[in-house]
Structures are given as structure tokens and as C-alpha cells.
């Protein structure tokens, strides 16, 4: 499909969320970073379509896409959509994304437990797991220690 038709379809937003997710992914694949603002606009609604947009941005694995996700997260969202955004940020697997999540854990931010869960879902490498553990220790929060044990259990070698 032609990028202009994809843009039109994305702007109309009349499709099912899964269809729009495919449109967002195709648009990002074809147009690259220039499509990020259009897809990021869909994040405003905090609905299933917004979740599809978040994961399409995460799949891009670019610094610009992560910046759009972090910006939307910092603008505030309900707990459910914040969790979606944190998961998308984690799934991008970008260094700045993991730095953002680890910093939220270290300062025991309101969403720190959700950040731990998001990192746990991505099956993190040992180095990232150790960084999260250090951040949890720094926070000195029992709640975060419990979240760490739940979402990032020790792996036997």
C-alpha cells in the first residue's frame, strides 16, 4: 500500500485497533522517523488503538520512537495505559529506554513496580537484571523488592 494511503487510513482511524496497528507498523516501516509524529498522535486516546500505536513505535527500535513514548508517558496517563507505555518502552530494547526504566525504579516512582514488570516481560539479559536489582536496593522499598522477586526471579544456572 502506498504511504499516502496509509497516512490517510491512519488519520481516519475508522478501523479495528489491530488493523490500525498494522497500518502504523507499515507506515513506520515505509516512512521511518517522519511517520513518528502521526503515530504518536494516536497515543493521546489511551485506548486499544493507542496501545497498538505504542507497540508499533516500540517495534521501530529507534531513539526517536522511544522519545515519543517517553514523552507521552511523562504527559500522564491512567495506570493501565501507563503500563502499556512502559511495556512498549521496554520492548524497544534501546539503551535510553532501559536507562529511563531503571531511573524510575531507582527513584521509586509511582510506576516503578510496573517498570520492573515491563523489564521482566522482555526477558532481560543478566546485566540489565543486575541494574534493576541495584536500583531496587537503592530504593529501599519492600514493595519494589517484592515486584523484583515476582517479575525478575533468580535464574538457576
Written description of the protein model:
The chain has 157 residues and is an all-alpha fold. Helix content is 73%, strand content 0%. The protein is built from ten helices and no strands. It has helices spanning 3-12, 17-31, 36-41, 48-60, 63-74, 79-91, 95-106, 112-121, 126-139, 142-151. Helix 1 (3-12) packs antiparallel against helix 2 (17-31) and helix 7 (95-106) runs antiparallel to helix 8 (112-121). The radius of gyration is 16 Å and the shape is elongated. The model has no long low-confidence stretch (mean pLDDT 89).
Which features does this protein show?
157 residues; mainly alpha; single chain; 73% helix; elongated; 10 helices
Write the layout of secondary structure elements.
Layout: H1 3-12, H2 17-31, H3 36-41, H4 48-60, H5 63-74, H6 79-91, H7 95-106, H8 112-121, H9 126-139, H10 142-151
Helix pairs in contact: 1-2, 2-4, 4-5, 4-6, 5-6, 6-8, 7-8, 7-9, 8-10
Using the CA coordinates, give the radius of gyration. Answer: 16 Å
Q: Estimate the global geometry from the Cα principal axes.
A: elongated
Stretches where pLDDT is under 50 for at least 5 consecutive residues are none
Total count of helical runs of at least 4 residues:
10
Quote the beta fraction. under 5%
Biggest sheet, in brief? none
Characterize this entry briefly.
By secondary structure, the protein is mostly helical. It is 73% helix and 0% strand. The model has no long low-confidence stretch (mean pLDDT 89).
